[in-house]
Amino acid sequence: MEFIKTLEVWFVVGSQHLYGQDALKQVEQNAEQITNYLNQQNPFIQIKLKPLATSSSEILSICQAANNEDKCVGLIAWMHTFSPAKMWIAGLSQLNKPLLQFHTQFNQFIPWNDIDMDYMNLHQTAHGDREFGFIAARLRKPRTIVVGHWQSQSVQQKLDRWMRVTAAIYDQKHLKIARFGDNMREVAVTEGDKVEAQIKFGYSVNGYGVYQLVNAINQVSEEDIASLIQEYEREYQLSDALKENGEKRTALFDSARIELGLKAFLQKGGFNAFTDTFENLNGLKQLPGLPVQRLMQQGYGFGAEGDWKTAALVRALKVMSFGLPKGTSFMEDYTYNLDENNEVVLGAHMLEVCPSIAQEKPILDIKPLGIGGKEDPTRLIFTAKSGPAINTTIVDMGNRFRMIVADLEAIEKPQAMPNLPVGHAFWKLQPNFDIGTQAWVTAGGAHHSVFSLDIDAEMLRIFAEFFDIEFIHINKNTELATLKNELRWNESAYR
């Protein structure tokens, strides 16, 4: 994620010449003080103050420059004074970067004994931002609105969350996804329009023969394999079969070779997400389990059975959650514990769950896999952390993409499962199991998803609004009748 350090968010402050040069100088000084303060709080992306925007031509120039500056990932707009919004039409009409409307003012409190008309003219965010808000609404411009004083910790957190989403949007536009093999045969939801996805999100999806991956795997050196084995031994609890002199030790070397070859292929091609499928493993000794888990933890997007939409979404949430402690993973609703009024979902996959969500030090083990027709694969086994979480998916509805987000409560493992051979999570659905399940299925939610303990629905709403895709949020207030109406209305809105 080194690219994040190179990114910028531009801070654009609106005003006008009506109040005189002294007022404009004060606006510039205040804007500089705010910028310096926010940058001292170690934001996710550094903020760069732009020249004061006081005319249509200046605003247009800033917006065009933002479009053309690759490292600029978004604009923060603040109306310090009143800024007549017709000046913003040309610029906002052309702006193609995420926009945040910063509804703040320089002074937190009214100077009760000293306030006069000069003060009123200078500190006009309260109604200057309403003028800006109208023109953004009139232009149907998607934007995030952050309200509050700029020194407030909650405001800084909101800015940081928005920046995380802008970084993910930037990354999606530059993302390359490699597919090894096709989709799992006869599966519907993992299919989709790759051309439309590139038009809508910017990422490209292309297929590569498994033999090309095998060629990269065969070029891995023995020295690099030995070094990676030592890393495995430091990071994980190895089962006896995989320890030195263990009966399955050679399988660990095979996994290390696959991991190194796969990573080399991805790095050489500039890919930050990938898919594979157990139905196309020609030349591989085992289905990549451990290698995929570790690459996900390093920030790569992944989708099983050729699911490129989920691979792209895993990558997006990996970028958003970079540096956060709880984790994000490819996931699948696998099976239920139907204890009435206390139903629990067991989420897992046959191998590929990211250890970033692990509560404890993972066990590195080898177990049989009944599909794929290859040697037994290695994998990391663990239980996920508990706490507020989400599952999200993007599905292709034919005439649009739909993002579905479900609020969850991830819980501790209800009891020991000594024979479960995969990384896994447990959660309860909102508002309850019955409605939460019906809502997901009614909306067409996929069986593959992205599970995150770091990202929430409102961050994903910003992401969906920028790309102009449908957004469905299943939460504690969800009612099925209302959801069904929302889906009907959306069908008309996107027709």
Automatic annotation (TrEMBL):
Cofactor note: Binds 1 Mn(2+) ion per subunit.
UniProt keyword annotations, A-Z: Arabinose catabolism, Carbohydrate metabolism, Isomerase, Manganese, Metal-binding
L-arabinose isomerase N-terminal domain boundaries: 8-172
GO CC terms: cytosol
Pfam families (alphabetical): AraA_central, AraA_N, Arabinose_Iso_C
UniProt pathway: Carbohydrate degradation; L-arabinose degradation via L-ribulose; D-xylulose 5-phosphate from L-arabinose (bacterial route): step 1/3
InterPro entries according to UniProt: Ara_Isoase_C, AraA_central, AraA_N, AraA_N_sf, Fuc/Ara_isomerase_C, Fucose_isomerase_N/cen_sf, Lara_isomerase
Record-level GO BP terms: L-arabinose catabolic process to D-xylulose 5-phosphate
Domain (L-arabinose isomerase C-terminal) ranges: 327-470
Catalysed reactions listed for this entry: beta-L-arabinopyranose = L-ribulose
Limits of the L-arabinose isomerase central domain: 176-322
EC number of the protein: 5.3.1.4
Domain of life of the native organism: Bacteria
Residues that bind Mn(2+): 305, 332, 349, 448
Cofactor: Mn(2+)
GO molecular function: L-arabinose isomerase activity; manganese ion binding
Family matches, as PANTHER family: L-ARABINOSE ISOMERASE
Family named by the database record: Belongs to the arabinose isomerase family.
Record's function text: Catalyzes the conversion of L-arabinose to L-ribulose.
Name of the protein this chain belongs to: L-arabinose isomerase
Organism the protein comes from: Caviibacterium pharyngocola
